[in-house]
Write a structure and sequence with these properties.
The chain is of the alpha+beta class. The chain folds into 3 domains: about 130 residues, DnaJ domain (Helix Hairpins, Orthogonal Bundle), CATH 1.10.287.110; about 70 residues, HSP40/DNAj peptide-binding domain (Sandwich), CATH 2.60.260.20; about 90 residues, Urease metallochaperone UreE, N-terminal domain (HSP40/DNAj peptide-binding domain, Sandwich). Helices cover about 30% and strands about 25% of the residues. The chain contains 10 helices and 15 strands. A 4-stranded mixed sheet has the order 10-11-15-14. A hairpin with a 5-residue loop joins β12 and β13. α2 packs antiparallel against α3. The longest helix has 18 residues. The termini are far apart. About 10% of the residues have low confidence.
């Protein structure tokens, strides 16, 4: 699917032009104006998916750089609609929403051809009759939220974890994929893995809130990593070469130029963390600190005193 073609804009289109095109199409294909029209329903799904990507600078950047096919290999529907609140978007344009979760709705459309989930417009061939123009929804179990901890290596490479959940006294193992480039506080949604529902209902969803553990060697700053390296005062004055190991174990020789100040930053390009599931890596910055010994020998004291007398 070419998102630019879906919205009818050029690849050079800016944010306001994309928003204007989306609003025009959303008005045309909104369910209120196309009751029971399957073609319009599908078109409404497509334009919202396109806008979810092209209105998000990070997703749009990945889409523009890697193209549609590669983008969809690495971005799931959950990724596409993450942080995209369709209720809020449609409310901004004055549309009636019926209080529905846009991302969940479109995922459901993809997996259940018998359901057309448009909030209060929801109709399902798998359910009974409708009253007042809206069908009864099956009871849903509670959504559950757990915290999952990941390391910086998990952020770098991605990972697969097995999480043990206890519901009603029973232990259930759930497998979850940790995407590359995951950020602190992000939530991973596992549909139908939440709390149990009453008979005839559907299970709730499981949300795993991600906590990125502190690393003993590296500090994360966005997609960059920072490594703090102490060197002697003499090396800071005269210059030296130091060896640095990256987070994935590669060794780099870094030149420290003469006269390097404390807290100077030296860059090793492309040795940081990935910018999302398919993005390039950030950089590794080496922050230089000058080591000050806690005590000096008599000879060292004399040398330091002579440096002081010489104006250093």
């Amino acid at each position: 699917m070419d998102y630019y073609n879906v919205l009818g804009v050029d690849k050079s289109a800016k944010g306001d032009e994309i928003k204007k095109a989306y609003r025009k199409l959303a008005q045309k294909y909104h369910p209120d104006k196309n009751n029971g029209n399957k073609s319009a329903e599908q078109k409404f799904k497509e334009i919202n998916e396109a806008y979810a990507v092209l209105s998000d600078q990070n997703k749009k950047s990945h889409y523009d750089r890697y193209g549609s096919d590669n983008f969809h290999k690495h971005f799931s529907q959950d990724d596409i609609f993450r942080n995209f609140n369709l209720n809020d978007i449609l409310n901004q344009f004055g549309f009636r929403t019926g209080g529905f979760d846009g991302a969940a709705s479109f995922r459901t459309m993809g997996g259940n051809p018998g359901a057309q989930p448009f909030g209060s417009f929801y109709t399902s061939h798998q359910q009974g009759g409708c009253a007042g123009g809206a069908c009864a929804q099956p009871a849903k179990g509670p959504d559950l939220t757990y915290q999952i901890s990941v390391s910086l290596n998990d952020v770098l490479h991605g990972a697969e974890r097995e999480v043990t959940l206890r519901t009603n006294g029973r232990a259930n193992n759930v497998s979850v994929k940790i995407p590359r480039g995951i950020e602190e506080g992000k939530r991973l949604r596992l549909k139908g893995k939440g709390g149990e529902a009453p008979p005839g209902g559907v299970r709730g969803d499981l949300y795993l809130k991600v906590h990125v553990e502190d690393d003993p060697s590296f500090t994360r700053q966005g997609d960059d990593l920072v490594y703090h390296k102490l060197i002697p005062f003499s090396d800071a004055c005269l210059g030296t070469t130091i060896e640095i190991s990256s987070i994935d174990g590669k060794t780099f020789k870094v030149n420290v130029p003469p006269g390097t100040d404390c807290e100077s930053r030296l860059r090793i390009k492309g040795q940081g963390l990935p910018q999302g599931p398919i993005g390039d890596r950030g950089d590794l910055f080496v922050t230089i600190g000058v080591h000050v010994p806690a005590s000096l020998s008599q000879e060292q004291s004399k040398i330091i005193q002579s440096l002081k007398d010489a104006g250093l």
